Amino acid sequence: MLHLHIVSWVAALILFFAAYENFSDRLGPSKYFKPLHMLLRLFLLLALVSGGYIFFQAMDNNAALYGIKFILGLLTLGLIEMTLARKRKKKSSRNFFYLTILLALITFALGAYLPLGPISALFN
Ligand code: HEM
């Protein structure tokens, strides 16, 4: 499950950047935007389900930090959708874009700090 989780959020972040760059404020979406966005949603769902699964299995160890990881992960995924929604409505989305990256980094750091998984093992 941890591997599925890692693959899912890595793919989601890459697809997020790709989708974001495939929507021009002046010209609208490229022909790749829609398939990228659909694939992105699939991986967002996988990251959510796998993360939730690990959460309910592991949260007894450190309920507070796992709770924060859950919320930060959820916020990151939510921000990804919100950023692209603003982009689609041609509202300013740069700040949302940077906030998404910031939250993804914090979520990553907390995930690496929490004990499970191959990325945590790299640091021990
Ligand atoms: C873009 C969003 C996300 C990123 C960047 C992210 C990142 C990570 C990372 C780096 C790990 C550690 C993997 C390892 O040590 O090998 C991890 C584990 C975990 N993630 Fe996420 N995650 C995200 C979304 C979520 C969501 C939405 C949830 C909950 C629904 C969640 C729940 C968990 C849980 C419970 C763990 C196990 C923590 C541990 O004990 O190591 N994550 N995540």
From TrEMBL:
<feature type="transmembrane region" description="Helical">
    <location>
        <begin position="35"/>
        <end position="58"/>
    </location>
</feature>
<keyword id="KW-1133">Transmembrane helix</keyword>
<dbReference type="InterPro" id="IPR010899">
    <property type="entry name" value="UPF0344"/>
</dbReference>
<keyword id="KW-1003">Cell membrane</keyword>
<protein>
    <recommendedName>
        <fullName>UPF0344 protein ERX29_02550</fullName>
    </recommendedName>
</protein>
<comment type="similarity">
    <text>Belongs to the UPF0344 family.</text>
</comment>
<feature type="transmembrane region" description="Helical">
    <location>
        <begin position="64"/>
        <end position="84"/>
    </location>
</feature>
<dbReference type="Pfam" id="PF07457">
    <property type="entry name" value="DUF1516"/>
</dbReference>
<keyword id="KW-0472">Membrane</keyword>
<feature type="transmembrane region" description="Helical">
    <location>
        <begin position="96"/>
        <end position="116"/>
    </location>
</feature>
<dbReference type="GO" id="GO:0005886">
    <property type="term" value="C:plasma membrane"/>
</dbReference>
<feature type="transmembrane region" description="Helical">
    <location>
        <begin position="6"/>
        <end position="23"/>
    </location>
</feature>
<keyword id="KW-0812">Transmembrane</keyword>
